[in-house]
Amino acid sequence: MKYLDKNVELCTECGLCEEACSKAYFKVADKEKSRIRINMESFGEKITVCNQCGKCIEVCQVQALYRDKNGIVRLDKSKCVNCLMCVGLCPENAMFEHVEFLEPFKCIACGICADVCPTGAIFLKEREMATAE
Amino acid sequence: MDFKVLKSFSYQLGKIIKGYNNRSLYINLNDYSIGEKEVTEMMKDKFIGGKGFGLWYLWNAVTPETKWNDPENEIVIATGPIGGITQYPGSGKSLVVTISPLTGIPIDSNVGGFFGPYLKFAGFDALEIQGKSKEDIVIFIDGDNGKVEIMDIDTESIDSHLIAHALTDMFAKNEEDKKNISVVSAGNGAENTLFGLLNFSFYDMRRKTVRLKQAGRGGIGTVFRDKKIKALVVKFSNTRGDLNCPHDIELIKKTGIKLHKEIRDLDDKQNQMRKVGTAHLIEIMNEYDLLPVHNFKFGAHPDTKNITSKVFKERYFTQNMPDGCWYGCSMSCAKAVDGFELKTGPYKGQRVTVDGPEYETAAGVGANLGIFNPDFIVEANFYLDTYGIDSISFGTATAFVMECYENGIINKDITGGLELNFGNEKAAMELLHQMARGEGFGKIVGLGIKRMKDIFVREYGADREFLNDIGMEQKGLEYSEYVTKESLAQQGGYGFTNKGPQHDEAWLIFMDMVNNQIPTFEDKAEALHYYPMFRTWFGLNGLCKLPWNDIVPADNDMTDNPAKVPEHVQNYVDLFYAVTGKKIDAEELIRQSERVYNFQRVFNIRMGHGKREDDKVPYRSVGPVTEEEYLSRQERYDNQLKEILNYDIEGKSIAERMKVLREYRESQYEKLTDAVYTRRGWTLDGIPTLKKLKELGMDLPEVVEVVKKHLG
């Protein structure tokens, strides 16, 4: 399966990935709406993004989170009851929420951000299905 | 299943505004009338919601003469303004209120499951059921279509694991739809004992099964069956995180995520609620000599190692399942045992899912009966739930009869052949099955300790004083499962409760006995003011107590008052504002509780109880009743006599020492009573003063009228 991997040392904090992501999914350049975050103060990681580990699937009572046929962890918004446990319990802090939405959102390894990254700090990588690193 | 609609009522679906629908649902089973009532501003200001609403409706429904099985008695179910939010752990509780068969005064019980939130989303802040039906009925509230129906449904059984499944299947369109149903039911044991409980269901999508949470205390299930209710069913299909239309949802989200993260980072290091739930208390209580063993005689037992949380975790609990009893509860303490094969009773040989065991059940039907077999505890847990019997009252009442049996007060002729020695698990299990069948000695034990004491004195010539000493009931309610002998504050924590000795009002043993944080009478009185009021607040708002202090922030120890968990108190202040838009602070939070707490006290007085006399406690909860108990802690007791009382024990018999110790301990309890009543603004007879009621704004004419009669 594909997932977004990172090489933190190459990151120049230019923010192009955040802009590309929020534009792609929310039609606006707003890092608060990006599914990848650079230097989020509260997270303590330079690059915060989902590694598709699937821990959130375990905690979701309504089974709104699931692994699709490509191995990507996705949210079915129609089932979500907006409890945000997945946001709080994510070991990577990579499930995000925003004041304008009830549902959380996360990286689905589409690669749009990797395409715009000038240094190759983020890139799509292959691994065996369903195992994180 | 065959069914017939006996009465149908349509209502306009509405919208919740800042936590309230501003209406409640009233059903009278005498004539099957169904209607709506307005929830007034007065109710919201003075009673907030949850058990506050329950007590207010109940007050207006009954007279001082009303008995539990009179038609005017009600069962009221309500969550509260915060109830039903999905973002903060422990926000889906229902509060149930009725006149208790055990105590004759209001009982309130706090229970999980989806019923309360779905009732609210269906359009009602409370459900009030009055009257008695002539035939068995099911009440169905269809929150999708705005319809309430009283139905005659032909179900195979009223035992909860069957009827909750059957009705979930019947009212759900398909598997996916089952999560939208919640069933309230009792069972055959609720019908044949006075300590029947109510099961509130939620559907576990992962296990594909109905799970049950219990409104356990005080016999509400008995009232439910006396009204000929088989079940209540609510359906609501579109649960979302903003259905309360809260004032500030962002604040709710932020506060919730903060606590989810705390739980993620700290629960494993603190109480492991996510892994073992309340069962972690078994070994802790044993270690501190607080686990009731042999009818509260002792506080520990070497065989406790067989029933620790480690045993349940490794051999019973199914791990890595989302175990919250409402959405968003990352504390997830609701453990379950899957595929458990029953060895006894009507369902012998079947494989079932058992919710629990919780600490109280393991302590009550395990240690307190001298039974240290986890298989027995899980099996008893299953049957207690499905029969609709409170495991705490069952455990404490059975421990009492075991001690009576061992003392020759009752014998095999009286018990119908059951050899009720401590540790006899076969006899204990048979007693439980008898309760469900309404047969034999089980029928007697099912009356509860208070009535058994009368019977044993009257019929078998038992010594009244001895039974009063060892019978662990007060106000008619059986004690929950903590040994309080060495903690004066917790003797009061049980003794001064409104509903009877249940630990949800106060649990001060560590503060008092272990950490010595409240040494003086004034300190204890302050704690016995603050904590019962603070904890009352959960029941007004539809909240669970556990996420308050079963997880604490990493820096909690550095705060001014770690026992209060200041950061979490602020979370609740924030949540109340975020939902209702009403600004409160930590002091106003306490006053909100005080209003309802004092109202409940006056309600007790109105029903002929609730004074100083009623707050007396059995000596078993205060000190050693028997020489065996004295000797088990002889060093501690001898030292107390020497050091505190300057009593020279040389040459004194154990009986003489016990007498002196008893006089001292009982006098301490009286002094504590004075201090607590004073702090709470009550007379020394335990009656709220007019000054106090005025100060709280609870000088309602009907309240003042009751109080005036007793103030003299």
Could you please describe the fold and organization of this structure?
The complex is a heterodimer of chains A (about 130) and B (about 700). Chain A is of the alpha+beta class and about 130 residues long. Chain A has a single domain, classed as Alpha-Beta Plaits, CATH 3.30.70.20. Helix content of chain A is about 20%, strand content about 15%. Chain A is built from four helices and six strands, in the order E-H-E-E-H-E-E-H-H-E. In chain A, strands 1-6 form a two-stranded antiparallel sheet. A two-stranded antiparallel ribbon of chain A has the order 2-3. Chain A has a two-stranded antiparallel ribbon with strand order 4-5. In chain A, strand 4 and strand 5 (about 75) form a beta hairpin. The longest helix of chain A is centred in the first third of the chain and has 11 residues, at about 15-25. Chain A is globular, with a radius of gyration of 14 Å. Chain B is built from 29 helices and 17 strands. Chain B has about 700 residues and is α+β, with helices and mostly antiparallel strands. The longest helix of chain B has 27 residues, at about 655-680. Chain B has a seven-stranded mixed beta sheet, with helices on both faces. Chain B has a six-stranded mixed beta sheet with strand order 3-2-7-4-5-6, sandwiched between helices. Chain B is about 40% helix and about 15% strand. The interface of A and B includes residues 85 and 91 of A.
Summarize the structure.
The complex is a heterodimer of chains A (about 130) and B (about 700). By secondary structure, chain A is an alpha+beta fold.
Q: What is the average of the pLDDT values of chain A? A: 93
Number of strands of chain A: 6
Per CATH, the architecture of the largest domain in chain B is 4-Layer Sandwich
Helix count of chain B equals: 29
The structure class of chain A reads: alpha+beta
What's the SSE pattern of chain A?
EHEEHEEHHE
Largest sheet of chain A: 2 strands, antiparallel
Q: How far is the N terminus from the C terminus of chain A?
A: 12 Å
Q: Residue share in helices of chain B?
A: 40-55%
Enumerate the spans of chain B where pLDDT stays under 50 for 5 or more consecutive residues.
none
Q: How are strands sequenced across the largest beta sheet of chain A?
A: 1-6
Q: How many structural domains can be distinguished in the coordinates of chain A?
A: 1
Please mark out the parts of chain A with pLDDT under 50 across 5 or more consecutive residues, or reply none.
none
